[in-house]
Each structure stands twice: as structure tokens, then as C-alpha cells.
Amino acid sequence: MGSPGWIGLVTLTLLLGVACSDGGRERVLLIGIDGAAPRLVEPMLREGALPHLSGLAERGLYRKLLSHYPIESPRIWTSMATGVLPRRHGIESFGFRDEQGGRHLFTSAHRKVPALWNILTAASRSVGVANWWNSYPPEAIDGVIVSDHLLTRDVLGRQRITGAETATVGSIASPEGWDERVRELLADDTPLTGIENPFADPERFPGWEVTERLAQRFENDADVVRVALAIEREIHPDVMMVFLPGIDRVSHMLWATVEPEEAYDPPIPMTPVLRAAGLAAMREYYRYTDALIGTLLEGYGDRDLVLVVSDHGFEAGRKLAFLTGVHDSEASVDGVIFAAGPGVQAPSDPRRISVNDVTPTVLAWLGLPVARDMDGRPASFLTGREVSWVESYASTPVERPGSRPSGAEEDILEELESLGYIERDDSH
User: Fold this and answer.
1) If both were cysteines, with which of 35, 206, 324, 380 could 256 make a disulfide (CB 3.0 to 4.6 Å apart)?
2) What class does CATH assign to 31-418?
3) Low-confidence residues of the chain: pLDDT under 50
4) Domain residue ranges of the chain, discontinuous segments joined by +
């Protein structure tokens, strides 16, 4: 696979910056997999059970991705989307309480710095965003944002009553009109992969009360990919950002099936049959996520940059009655990163790749300046791209059309409560 002519062609391609499947435009696909753990990813790669991720590793690389404490998803995914630490971007956790004790979610309105989609918009690059953490309310960009309030199915069209007036809830998408497109997409239940929902048959998990909730995760991830594919078809953005939450949600409930029995004291009451069924379902969900990634990859070629990242792993721990997976210590601080595309090669630099490096890496690969005041830097695997610098993107315009409640807030808070992420609200 390596004649001088082939090498020369690749070199010329890099020099010309022709790096995509669409008429010479450089394009990026950035996929986030919440909670994808090296503990499962690595053995499944060796077994050939994750063919699409294996293909990315073979064309480029696979590494562990260094996260930071506390290991809470919103703060980490916002660092990935900004290149700065939580103390600077302002999203420190899942939510907060007001002076009266009321619970509130952190939203995009609390973010103190521009996100990657704002920076790209200012640079006249189009962007698609599907379900990224803390993207509600959606900001006006050159492209489409379908926010992280997407997955509460009944949010669309919901109305809230204020006195004698009826006011529609805030839009979950930008630009105007995409709420209706999302409504249509969520009504489509055509399978996207050949993998069946491992939680569809509760008889596989006798005595478990969470199979219906787990089955919904499968559908949720498909919904996100349907939205992303629609954005891809309709605007073909320069950068596409997609966030899949399912692995994290499933892992919180099933992680005990990965760990040895002695990892828990007292032991988790689980029969060998149930343990085997849970582990098989976990592995099947990783295979399903890999298949969804394959569906997203169909719109991209060898000359595009593809990044697949996760924010943390998992470890043994107990929360509430049925949560057996946590991410509280150094044992779960590593996520994963897969990278493939022109200029990507395994680095000799021993410096760890950090979650803070994701946005600087995308900017550098696109030939856009990296901000000196970012806490991250272009990843050491990036070669053949001259990095330029700007002092800061702090003055980048961020247009937030509105900040009305989406109508999904309470549902999201209840889900976070059920996962042990936030304290139960005893005020009701």
C-alpha cells in the first residue's frame, strides 16, 4: 500500500488542504460517547467486536483521553467544546439551587466563553450540533443546533400556562423551523442498524425493574443519530458535533456485570444467569453504538477528520438501590479518543491528550487560529498542519435568541436524580 506515486498524491492533498468528501471543503465529524470506558472498549477492539472504531484506530489512532475532577459530564463536555477549564467556562456541575432552594439546570446561558460552534460561525464555517451537553437554549449559528433538551419526547409543542395567557415553551432547536423537523424525525422508528434492542425482552433480566428505562436509552441514541443525519443531509456542515448518551446511562445500572463479585462489599445480589445476561447486554450496547457511528461515518471519507471521544470511564460503586457503576476516582478518569484523517498519526510525544485539547485540535486541523488563553492545545497526534494563534476568542459574538424554559427541565432533573447525579428533591 505504498508506492512513491501514492505517497506523493497524499502529500499534495495535504498541502492543498483538500480534506473532505464534498468538493474540496475540509470537514470534521466529532462524536461524543458519554461514559465509553477503556475497560470495555479495549478488549472489544482486540476481539474485533467494534469494527467502525477499529477502522478509525487502524487509519489513525486510539488513545485514552485524560479527563478532570470532579468527573461530571456537563463540565467536561463543555471543556471539550470550549478548550477551557470549568472554572473559566462556568458550567461547574449539572445544576444549582437558588436562594429559595429551587433546583435549576446549568444551560448555555451560563457559559462564560464562546463554544466551538460560535468560533466556527464567526469564521464563516457551517456547523451542525445534535444533543451536545448544555446547548439549550440553542444559540444562533451558521448552521443548525438541536439542543440537549431533545430527548424529552413530549417537549415539542408543549405549552405552559402563565395566568390567563398561554405561552409556547422555548425552542429546542435553531434556526426557526427545526422544532417541527425534529418532531417528524422523532416519529420515525425505522431501525438504523441491524442490532436489536438488548433490553426489549425483560424476561432476559428476571427481577430487574429498570429494563424499560434501559430500552429507552437504545431509542434515544437512535433519535440523536436521526437528527444528526438530517442535519448532514440538509446543510452538509463543515463541522458536525453529535453526542450519544446511552452508554453512560446503561453503565450506571449494569456495571456490576463487568466487575468481579468481590469488587462490592456487601456483594451485589445477582445470579450467574443474570450477571451473564447483563454483561452480554452491555457489550451489545457498545456494538450498537459502534454501528450508529458507522451510520454517521457514511457521509465522510478518508480525507475528512473524524474524532470520537468519551469523557470518562467507570468503576465499581453503589448509588441508590440499583446503580452499580460510578466515576468518582482516578480509576475512571480516563475516557477514550479515536482520531483519523489527514495529518493524524500516532505521536512520539508522551504528553497525554486531554479533554481540553478537543476544540484546539479541531481549530488547528481546519487551519483556524487557536487561542492562547485556551487551557488546551492541539493534540500531539496532529501533523502537517501549521498552527496559528490568536490571543483570545473572548469577544466572539454569542447570539442567544431567548432563554424561556423548554418544558423539559423537570424531566431532566428527575432523570439526573435517578442516576444519582443530583440530590433528591424532598420538597414535593
Assistant:
1) 324
2) alpha beta
3) 1-20, 159-166, 428
4) 31-418
